[in-house]
Design a protein that fits this description.
two-stranded antiparallel ribbon; 13 strands; about 220 residues; 3 domains; alpha+beta; five-stranded mixed sheet; elongated; about 20% strand
Length: about 220
């Protein structure tokens, strides 16, 4: 990405090479690849230096838009301070700004529920619900291959589910319940990240504080 800088002010952005006119002169797109850095900067074309030091994992944070700045012969694109996503579900309501801008329904006031087309309040899912839902789906997937044992036991009077299968299925449920509790106990985004992040241990294994589901029964 490039910018055009005139009198130390960024006046134009180039997301991709393209021709442009400057001071009555027409410049083709290939100057971006054929001209040297010094040649491009002589007419005010500067390649953008991207600074991602403030950018955080988008699974957990909302990053700001990049801001562009020219200083000391360098154009830098950088992020502001990222904001952690909400941990808990949020019931969406109309704000005073929505009311003032007439983007809310007629007669709505600030604080009124924001409803969908069926009249149900819109709820934004928080990180805790997102990850608990994901682990419950994983647990369901682990249990599915042995469901037939349970079904057979309900239909065949002289059949019992093997003890190994029963023990495994109980362990899966116990583990997913423990995972949900651990996630619910997270006080902030950083705590949740730590809970879910795999790290190398002294013995060479890679584990996470949340732990793992039991091994599947074949």
């Amino acid at each position: 990405m490039y910018t055009l800088v005139i009198d130390e002010t960024i006046t134009k952005y180039f997301s991709y090479p393209k021709g442009f006119t400057l001071n009555g002169n027409q410049y083709p797109a290939d100057i971006f690849s054929k001209w040297s850095v010094a040649e491009k900067e002589a007419i005010g074309i500067y390649e953008v230096v991207f600074d991602s030091s403030n950018k955080k994992d988008e699974d957990y944070y909302i990053n700001t838009n990049q801001s562009f700045n020219y200083a000391d012969g360098v154009v830098t694109a950088s992020y502001g301070t990222a904001v952690g996503k909400k941990l808990t579900d949020t019931n969406e309501v109309w704000t005073q700004e929505d009311v003032d801008n007439e983007s809310s329904p007629e007669g709505a006031s600030a604080g009124d529920p924001m409803n969908d087309e069926k009249g149900n309040q819109i709820v934004t899912t928080g990180l805790k619900t997102k990850y608990k839902t994901g682990f419950n789906l994983e647990a369901a997937g682990l249990l599915a291959p042995t469901d037939w044992y349970v079904v057979k036991a309900t239909e065949v009077s002289d059949y019992s589910v093997p003890s190994a299968v029963t023990t495994y299925r109980a362990a899966v449920r116990t583990k997913v319940n423990a995972m949900e509790t651990a996630i619910d106990n997270c006080a902030n985004v950083n705590t949740l990240i730590t809970l879910l992040t795999y790290t190398m241990q002294d013995d060479g294994t890679v584990t996470r504080p949340l732990g793992e589901f039991p091994k599947e029964v074949v």
